[in-house]
Each structure stands twice: as C-alpha cells, then as structure tokens.
Amino acid sequence: MNSVNIIGRLTKDPEVRKLQDDTTLCNLRLAIDDAHSKDDRTDFISVTVFGAQGEVCEKYLRKGFLCGVSGRLRSDVYTDAEGVKRYPVKLTADRVQFLQWPETRSCSEPAAAEAAETTEAIETAEAAEAVEEVA
C-alpha cells in the first residue's frame, strides 16, 4: 500500500507547465511542522498535481496557503554535482484540499465556493472515468 496524507503550507506559489500531451503539471512545495520533534523540525515535501486539479491549484493557491494532500510517494535518483547519489522523495497528489485562505488575501466567499465546487466536479468526473474503465 502506498498512501500518504499530509497537511502543510505552500512555501511558494504553484509552478505550472504543460506536458507534450497538453496535460497540466503543477508543482507545489509544502512545509510541514513536526509537532512531535523536540527541535521544532520542519519537513519540506515536493508535490506534483496533474490535470484539471493542477489548474485549480494554480488558480487558487498561493504562498502561505494551508492545504491537505492525499497521494502516493515516489522516489527519484540522481547524481549531484559532487558525484553523490541523491534519492529525493516526492508526493504525487490524488487529491488536494484547500484548508484555509490567509487573512492577508482578499478572497471572497464566492471564490472559495467556486474552488470547492470545481474540485468536487473534478473528483466526480475522475470517479466516473474509473467506473467506466472497470465496466
């Protein structure tokens, strides 16, 4: 089983690009405080969000926003400039949930409702596609 749920704050605005097949790829970086650490440790996790959900993240998320992410861990391997092999762990998102709008941003209730409705519509469409694939 490869399933992860995290809650954290964006360390910077989402970075979005289009893949060759026109799929949207959105990269997020979350700061996650470790409440059980004696030294106030913070972990930084890279998150990749694909498709329409990535477009919604680009539209509504900004640096400092609190969000929850459910997804799967994936590890890469590369050799750095000093010749040392590195094994970064990244999270591929299945779902991103907006948990809080910062007080410094003037976000209206209708905009927050629109973001929630868009996310729900995406999840419903993805579930329908999964059912069609099984049938």
List keywords for this structure.
135 residues; alpha+beta; OB fold (Dihydrolipoamide Acetyltransferase, E2P); five-stranded mixed beta barrel; two-stranded antiparallel sheet; globular
Give an account of the 3D structure:
This protein is of the alpha+beta class and 135 residues long. 27% of the residues lie in helices and 41% in strands. It is built from 2 helices and 8 strands; from the N terminus they run ββββαββββα. The protein has a 5-stranded mixed beta barrel with strand order 1-3-4-8-5. A two-stranded antiparallel ribbon has the order 6-7. α1 packs antiparallel against α2. The chain is globular and about 45 Å long. It starts with a strand and ends with a helix. The relative contact order is 0.19. Mean pLDDT is 83; it is low at 104-108.
